[in-house]
Structures are given as structure tokens and as C-alpha cells.
Amino acid sequence: MSFTLATWNINSVRLREALVCKLMTEEAPDVLCLQECKSPVEKIPFEAFTALGYRYHVARGQKGYNGVAILSKLPMVEAGAGDYANLGHARHIAGRLENGVTIHNFYVPAGGDIPDRAENEKFGQKLDFLTHMRDDFHAQRPDRAILVGDLNIAPREDDVWNHKALLKIVSHTPIEVDHLAAAQEAGGWVDVTRANIPEGQLYSWWSYRSPDWDAADKGRRLDHIWATPDIAGAAHGSRVLRAARGWEQPSDHAPVFATFDL
């Protein structure tokens, strides 16, 4: 069985329904994981997605904030949802395919602007969320699993446009990178994107504040696809659909893809 998976922070699924449909039509991943849906589940436009072949879905939603969804052409059932750091936020959903592969879709908190939990509650929540992920993976080490999402951390030096300039900027600080690495190590997760594209600058997010995001290219790789070691070797074809960042009224994130032959 071969299937292609994409992950995309859509920054409002209702506002950008047409962009989701465009991706489904032009790229047609078998499974599409969305973050920051900003919608109650009952108001997500599933009917439009079903018409394009995405008949299966699992989701958690909130009005105006957060929200995660997995849309699939392949048969899929819900496999759980965690309330990480006990925030009461819709930031995780899992679905299981018929081949036994579980897909975890995460939206890690952005963490605010100040990288100090004493001064910024949101930064503390981000670190606590990652610690909860780590502890969960320690308690029950995953197998035949894929983890995707907007993890809101660019861990490598070549995952940001300027490593030194961003060391004190939330999303690339050493403490965040360390917390993400601890969660990754606890689950034995393999960074599929970097396994397939081991060298070079690679970004999935460009700020709305940049007047010419493409030319300036001050990006960060905040969106990730990981897999457990038992299936990571089956992944190939990883890519970032950079062009989507230039679509009309775009999200500030671009979709990230990988194909698995299982």
C-alpha cells in the first residue's frame, strides 16, 4: 500500500476552504492533516471535501482558535485525542488507517513573543505541552505511527534563514529545540523530511509581515512529518509546496508532503 500524506497549518479552514479544495484537486494527497482550523467541528466544510473524495475525517475544533483535522480518502477511524498540558485546547487528533498505521496530528502552541516562562505564560505552556508529549511517548512508545503537524519549532540551523539572529526568537531558542528533541527521542521518531532532504535551507513558514516573502525568503521550518523507525524507511518523496504560500489570501504556512510505501 502506497499513500501520500500532507500536513498544513491552514489558518482558518472556513476562510480558506477554497485553498484546501485547490490542494485536494491539484495535489490530491491521500491523507491531509490540517492545523489551526479555527472552527467548531460541526462548521468545518466536510461536505465540500467529501465531494472531492475525502470521505473520512476525524477532528477536534474550537471557535476562533486552534483546531486540528485529518481528512482522508482512505478508510480511517479515530484513534484518540490528547489534552496536552491540560490546556483544554483542540491541539491533537489521531486517526488509524486500515493498514494499522496511526497518524497523530499536532498543533503545538506558538509560545508568544518572549522566550521566558516567568514573563510569558504562553511560553511556559509550550514547554509543558512538549514535556507532556515526551512523557506520553516514554509511557507508551509508539509503533507503526506517523506524527505530523505545526510543531512551531525550527530545530536545525538550516531550518531558519539566520541561525544566529533567531537564537533568542521564539521557535528557534535552545530550550525549545531541546524540548522538541526530548519528545522526538522519547518516541524514537525519525524526522522523515530531513531523512529525505538531509542538506540545505528548508522552510515551511514565511511571516505575513514580510512585504515580499518570496524574495526576502526569511523562512522557518515549523511543520514536520515524523515516523516511527519501523516504517520510517518506507518514506520518500518529501517536499514543501512553497507555491501554496503565494496563492490568493494564503496561509502563512506551506503544505509539507511525504509518501509511504507500506
Can you walk me through this structure?
The protein is an alpha+beta fold and 262 residues long. The protein has helices at residues 17-26, 46-51, 121-139, 163-166, 174-187, 192-196, 213-216, 229-232; strands spanning 2-9, 31-35, 56-60, 68-72, 76-80, 92-97, 102-107, 145-150, 190-191, 205-206, 219-220, 223-227, 235-240, 256-261. The chain has a six-stranded mixed sheet with strand order 3-4-2-1-14-13. The protein has a six-stranded mixed sheet with strand order 5-6-7-8-12-9. A two-stranded antiparallel sheet has the order 10-11.
- How do the strands of the widest beta sheet line up side by side? 3-4-2-1-14-13
Class based on secondary structure composition and strand pairing:
alpha+beta
C-alpha-based Rg, rounded: 17 Å
Sketch the topology as an H/E string, one letter per element. EHEHEEEEEHEHHEHEHEEHEE
Number of helices: 8
Amount of beta strand: 25-35%
Provide mean pLDDT, rounded: 98
| Oligomer state of the chains in this structure | single chain
What are the low-pLDDT stretches, counting only 5+ consecutive residues below 50?
Answer: none
Total beta strand runs: 14
> First CA to last CA: what distance?
5 Å
Main beta-sheet annotation: 6 strands, mixed
Please state the overall shape, judged from the principal axes of the Cα atoms. globular
